[in-house]
Design goal:
mainly alpha; two-stranded antiparallel sheet; 38% helix; 5 helices; globular
């Protein structure tokens, strides 16, 4: 599993899906027109995907009060019980599009913002000050 996948699973839950499976319309839905083949197709409704408040979820985790997860990629990964060594951060940076990751403070700040942006893009509610 990708490192970002581990981060996402740790925050959203392992069974979280980007979209829920479609549900058929209730039996009280209007009847289809028998002369129109497309009208005979079942009516499909999508269930709303619950939005995860990333900030509140991370704040409620044990150890959040001792770690600077809001600005530190290392502390964020530690909070989520994901290996935060250089090799793991480099692999995460490569997953997220940065091939020249050196582990510098600037690279780590970029990586933290990028992770927060990706969490937001995958359905998380992430405050603007934690994103780009």
């Amino acid at each position: 599993m990708s490192i970002f996948g581990k981060i996402k699973d740790a925050i959203f839950g392992k069974d979280a899906k980007a979209q829920e499976a479609p549900q058929t319309a209730p039996s009280g839905a209007p009847k289809a027109n028998p002369g129109n083949a497309w009208a005979n197709a079942p009516v499909v409704e999508k269930k709303a995907t619950p939005v995860v408040d990333v900030e509140n979820h991370l704040d409620s985790m044990p150890g959040a009060d001792r770690l600077n997860w809001r600005t530190s990629i290392v502390d964020l990964m530690k909070l989520l019980n994901i290996d935060s060594d250089y090799e793991s951060r480099k692999a995460l940076a490569q997953e997220l599009g940065r091939e020249d990751y050196s582990g510098s403070a600037e690279d780590n700040m970029w990586l933290h913002k990028r992770v927060m942006n990706e969490l937001a893009a995958n359905g998380g509610k992430v405050p603007a000050d934690l994103r780009d």
